[in-house]
Write a structure and sequence with these properties.
The protein has eight helices and eleven strands. It is α/β, with parallel strands linked by helices. Bound molecules: iron/sulfur cluster. Iron/sulfur cluster binds next to α7.
């Protein structure tokens, strides 16, 4: 699954940019999901007095509202990006305003000066295109080697760049959990977007230990892999017929 974030301050053109990208990716037969980061502290779709609100107040979590045309699962907390993405299985997921995860970024700005403010942010290294209000105002084709794309008029070009640049989502481990590629997860993302590395440079898929739960692959950081590998090899090596095997498979039924 390919995931990107469209980042910018309020009224910089993020939603319009996302709308135009979704329409064009859909037209190209890609399935697209989206996530909208909400910055209002008291935001909640469910309101006091509804039946679902009463379920929640009584202690249920999560609560699901199942309607004829829509099903809303309401979690009583802000979920991490990785957890949210575990509910998605689309070709692309577009996130509006999400900056706390390792993914490529389209920056939306009102004017060129605003880019300077974003330059101080950690995510700026993962910006691969500029769009939003400024892209419609100025006749700029690029800014410091980043393409500046008007998403209203040049939505096809913006989609071309997304298809070319955005890669299968990388993990977002802290460097002390995994640094097998030598750049850290966010560092590798930056290098891929600059054309200096490729998605295949993430060595996690070559891991010695893989885990799946109900058929779904779960990432395991290196030091945990080492612990599991050494422990299992020691146990299996003591069993009759287990000493010389090259591949160990274990299924646990709960
Ligand atoms: S090898 Fe993969 S998981 Fe490990 S640091 Fe690099 S990108 Fe992250």
């Amino acid at each position: 699954m390919k995931v990107l974030s469209v980042v910018g301050i309020t009224k910089s053109g993020k939603t319009t940019t996302i709308e135009n990208i979704i329409k064009e990716l859909n037209r190209r037969q890609f399935s697209v999901g989206s996530v909208k980061e909400i910055h209002y502290e008291n935001f909640a779709i469910d309101t006091e007095g509804t039946n679902t609100y009463r379920h929640k107040a009584a202690g249920a979590a999560p609560v699901t509202a199942r309607g004829y045309n829509e099903t809303d699962i309401l979690f009583p907390s802000k979920l991490p990006v990785e957890k949210i993405l575990s509910f998605y299985n689309q070709d692309y997921v577009l996130m509006e305003g999400v900056t706390d995860y390792n993914m490529p970024v389209i920056l939306c700005v009102n004017d060129i000066k605003e880019i300077e403010q974003h330059k101080k942010e950690e995510y700026f290294g993962r910006v691969f295109a500029i769009s939003g209000v400024a892209a419609n105002k100025y006749c700029l084709k690029d800014f410091e080697q980043l393409p500046v794309i008007n998403s209203v008029q040049n939505f096809e070009l913006l989609a071309d760049i997304i298809v070319d640049k955005v890669f299968e989502l990388l993990p977002d481990f802290p460097p002390d959990c995994c640094n097998l590629c030598g750049y850290g997860c966010r560092g590798l993302s930056e290098r891929i977007l600059k054309g200096l590395s490729s998605r295949e440079d993430c060595k996690l898929s070559e891991a010695a230990v893989t885990l799946s739960v109900d058929g779904k692959h779960i990432k395991i950081v290196n030091f945990v892999q080492d612990i599991l590998k050494d422990t299992l090899i020691a146990i299996v090596g003591n069993l009759k017929g287990g000493k010389d095997g090259r591949k160990i498979e274990l299924t646990i039924n709960r």
